[in-house]
Amino acid sequence: MAPRKSKKKAPSFRKLLKTSNIKIENKLKNRQFKQQSIAKKHRKEQKKLKQALNNAATRTPLPLERYKKRHEEEEEEEFEETLPVDMMEDDDLEQMKAMAQKASFLTRDLSSSEPVHARKRKQENVMDKYEKVPRLMQKEQEKELIHLLPIKDKTGIIPQTMEKPVVKKAEKENEDEEDGGDGAEEVNAPKPLPLLTTQELVVLRRKRLEERKVCIAALGSSILSDPSANIKKLKELRSMLVELDPYVAVTVRKLVMVSLMELFKDIVPSYRIRPLTEAEKSTKVKKETQQLREFEEGLVSQYKFYLENLEQTVKDWKQMKKKKSDVVSLKSYKGLAEVAVKCLCELLVALPHFNFHNNIIVMIVPLMNHDCKKISEMSCEAVRKLFKQDKVGQASLGMVKVISGLVKSRNYEVKPEVLKALLCLRVKEVEVKKDADDIAPKKKFMNFKEKRKHLSRMQRKWKKAEEKLEKELLEAEATECKEKKLKLHTETLNIVFLTYFRILKKAQKSILLPCVLEGLAKFAHLINVEFFDDLLIVLHKLVESGDLSYRESLHCIQTAFHVLSGQGDVLNIDPLKFYTHLYKTLLRLHAGTANDDMIIVLQCLDVMLTKRRKQVSVQRALAFIKRLTTLSLQVLPNSTVGILATNRVLMHTFPKSDILLDNESQGSGIYLPELDEPEYCNPQNTSLWELHTLQRHYHPIVRKFAAHLIVGAPSEGSGALNVDLSRKSATDLFEDYSTKGMTFNPPVATPSSKKKEKFTIGDALLDSDLKKQIDSHLEATSIPSDLDFAAQFRKAFI
């Protein structure tokens, strides 16, 4: 009969490993306690023994008792002394001495333990006596065992152990001395390592660094060659992030950070890896599928640990706390943190689709507001790149949420660069009004009942093939759903406008106000119509308050007209106050630092006059043309070119503006340039005399535009501009002819070099008669003091 199987389950590997660790710890504790108690007992015994020896050495021996000998004994001793010893043999003499020693207690050997009158044993065995003496055996130290991973066999689990290598350590023990009672054992101290010179240290560091570089390169190349098979080497490479060699620790950690970043950028798939469900784990799959799952799981775990290491590096630098086991100094923390932030920024931009992208966003956004300029610039640049390349909007939405939370949590006290990054959002594709195509219901495929009811058998067959082909075409397009993109962009803009409106309401004197106004100017055409009235009132109050700078007031005007040019066309609002404010402040621009604000002025003029031509009167247009021409005399050449290009567009848009080229006045009154109201300054009674001054400008493009406007800005003919100049907008011309490089743009042409003719004296160039006269005059030594030309003339005619 077969033996009965035990129903007791074998312990799992994890449980066995856990219990073995506990047993090992208990054994180690018991062994240490036992060794301590034995050493303590041994020290006590040694101390007692030394104390007894010291007492015996210092004690003076008592004198032996002397008995009075009888007369007969004295005579026998005298007789023995007088015996001739020379006549005795050596054997007899030794026997007599032995008998004499055993004769009495005083003369016998004290080391012998036999009684005085013991009989001599016959055939005494010396070897037996020697064997009875206890031997001092050298105690062997008990060897410590290390429990290894067990082996599972058919019979069960077989535990594995090995002996722990013994490391000999030199110990010093203080002992009592003989004189003072306390002494110290002399132990040979280990010799210190020889000190290395600076040159030797450099050579040693270079050698170790080369070894680490070779190791990093080998691991990286093996992972890139076959990522699925060598995914475990990522852990080996990541372990080098805690390099303990003080000579190369900082450099090696930086190299490993950058190497891992490049590796993840290369081997990470183009999809997000989700965790497997319990049902998926329990089902059997193919070998290739199982390998792919293991690769994905290992990749995600190593990527997570790598991000945690980078985050911990940045935290250590922020807290400036050095770990006890760390060999890196506090000064090196900043360099490591900069490399870690750079790696995080690269992963933020390169892997927006992969796992833990939201975690990277949460780490990067607070660094945008950091005091360190380099780290703040790297973080802001990475965020701007992410906004520019994000076509779908999922990553942008997550980033905007975190930025909005940061601004609110810091009570709007953040750097302006944080909000300037929002200007790079790609939300121009958002359409607020739905087209007819979007509203129309989508085409649906027929179900089986409808096909059977309305179609024949052959038609159903063709319909099935047609629907299959249409589905394949839809899958082949692989385009993002427009509704999903529209929803993401709408939610993103709602959060952006919520942040902007909070700052306009609660922090109007904050340094973030220029960024808010600039952002509103860019995205104003996407604001809901319900907020237009309130927004225009707030903007007008800000402009009239006088607390804003000139650039901020320009942003307010630009925002207001962007709002009115978009969905605000349906509103019957005349922003006369904004026209008046811009007309009044135009002459603040000059050739200094205010020249950079000219591009905003040109954008405002395009929105205010060109795009709203139907709502602008002729008087207002003439006033702006005259003031812009006056402004062109006091700004840099690129601003002058932009202003003249704007005047050219306005002259084409308002044909009646050609009266400014005539010297005769139109109507009553005179031109009032000091009046701030463009409607009532009588611009029709003046002329553009500034164009004659600009015709003598040193810049060639300014001269061309001035000559073009004087003749009425014709599109064809001799006075027309080149195609390159006529097709460009005013803002493009402003940027093209910028003088930021402190050079002439376009460069000044070098004058043509003309060689001077040299006068050479020779027979070939002079007449013979003339040469004789010259020679005679040169040879003459005396020069007449009185020059009487009349006498010489009379002599010539006589």
Automatic annotation (TrEMBL):
Pfam family, one: CBF
Record SUPFAM superfamilies: ARM repeat (SSF48371)
Keyword annotations of the record: Coiled coil, Nucleus
Cell compartment(s), UniProt: Nucleus, Nucleolus
Segments forming a coiled coil: 455-484
Segments forming domain CCAAT-binding factor: 553-706
Domain Nucleolar complex-associated protein 3 N-terminal stretches: 212-306
UniProt-annotated stretches for the region Disordered: 33-87, 166-191
Main location: nucleus
Biased composition (Basic residues): 39-50
Biased composition (Acidic residues): 73-87, 173-185
Family indicated by similarity: Belongs to the CBF/MAK21 family.
Protein name: Nucleolar complex protein 3 homolog
Organism the protein comes from: Huso huso (Beluga)
